[in-house]
């Protein structure tokens, strides 16, 4: 809602801190009517979404994150009846309420939707397409923090024994030993591995690099896997058959799902190894700040969400320090 003259724009900018979305719309209509100011309409909803996604890509968001943003925001835009520059808080709340009423999403997913919509409108505000984000008044959606199980020692051995190839065994050992993300795993190259120091460089979110460390068992299985390969691909993990293409996230997830179903009848996914590593590290006394570094988290609160503290350890500490 941009004016040819600066006066009307300044009025709206000054009043945006004191008025809600509906009141801002009324003010805008009044200024156009009284001052007779011509208005340069903002781009279409589809164009604004395209520009937002381009901005996120430039900021370094992964293709998977961009895809999640795309699906979420396309559904939102298709569901609302207003152009984005006049959407108010009530309309966003109504959309979230309709998603909740449909009963197909958890509160965790619903809050993720709220967060993505909020990010979109914050960007529109920064780009001066709107004067105030309508999502600012919508609070975080609470959810019950479910305790997610980790992989037990016995389950880990059964999983390892069920691997049908040296590659699969090396993947599982590396995930379990380092706690790296599956996206980081598939981006690894041979040159990223330092066998002498038993460490490797991973390329995390936002193209940030960090070191992670693996145990002797992982070293042996990685070396055995690389030794039996006949291709010259620089990627650390490739398909088992020619033309030996680098593995992608979906390929790793599918293989782990098959191994989990065949070995234990469970749903096995890469993230479970990450959560297991974090939980064990904390249970054994590793400072949470060091676990944060290993996992590549920018905020320690995220690390605490990943780690499930063993209640028996809490009881032993209570007996030691309090009882």
TrEMBL record:
Q: Which domain of life is it from?
A: Bacteria
- What GO cellular component term, any one, is given? cytoplasm
Q: Name one GO molecular function term.
A: DNA binding
SUPFAM superfamilies named among the record's database cross-references: DNA breaking-rejoining enzymes
**What Pfam families does the annotation carry?**
Phage_int_SAM_4, Phage_integrase
Q: Which residues form the signal peptide?
A: none
Q: Which InterPro entries match?
A: CB (IPR044068), DNA_brk_join_enz (IPR011010), Integrase-like_cat_sf (IPR013762), Integrase_catalytic (IPR002104), Integrase_recombinase_N (IPR010998), Integrase_SAM-like_N (IPR004107), Tyrosine_recombinase_XerCD (IPR050090)
Give every Tyr recombinase domain span: 146-319
Membrane-spanning residues: none
Keyword annotations from UniProtKB, A to Z = Cell cycle, Cell division, Chromosome partition, Cytoplasm, DNA integration, DNA recombination, DNA-binding
According to the entry, every stretch annotated as the Core-binding (CB) domain falls at 43-125
Task: Tell me the GO BP annotations in alphabetical order.
Answer: cell division; chromosome segregation; DNA integration; DNA recombination
Where does the record place it?
Cytoplasm
Where the protein is mainly located, per its record?
A: cytoplasm
Q: What is this protein called?
A: Phage integrase
Query: Which organism does this sequence originate in?
Result: Leptogranulimonas caecicola
